Amino acid sequence: MMWMVLLIVQPLLINTGRTQLHRTIGKVSWVLGPLIIVSMFLVGRGSYGRSIGKFPDQEVLGTMVLDIRGYISFAIFWALAMFYRKNSASHMRYMIATGLLAIGPGVGRGLISSGVEFPTALTITDVIDLVIVGFLLGYDIYRKKNYKPFLIVFVVFLVGAFLWQVRDSAAWQSFAKSYAALFY
Predict the structure, then answer these.
(1) CA distances (Å), origin 67, targets 53, 115, 119, 148, 163
(2) Sequence-distant (≥ 6) Cβ neighbours of residue 155 within 8 angstroms
């Protein structure tokens, strides 16, 4: 929640000319970002541990893609946002990307509670994410802005969506089994 508060407050500070306060508060993200990455990893590990024996191995290994892509995507976007902190246009786009990651879990749960099957709900949220980022990418291209940040974000989301679709493949199952043995 603290990250989402930062994503709302920080642009407001920039918009109202409080750049120094934005920079001061932004230092929190140097601690909060890594804590989020570690906590996302630990949530995935815990989910895996609770699922073993309760669900078929193929299903457990398949759903690992959600946790892995979540924390890796956040780590990529956060690291790029911090790297480009002095380039406000790129910094802003990567910070937006960290917020877009929150769409999937919320919309997915809403769809599931409305009767949509779990795999279908996740596919729908992936499409929604890709459409939003595709629109932002297209807008930057149209306005002749630096489109590279949203292109990178689009590719990361596309890879994540692809991995969800191939979660039952022998390649993913083998990777997930090795990953679980190594990290979980």
Answers:
(1) 19, 23, 14, 26, 12
(2) none
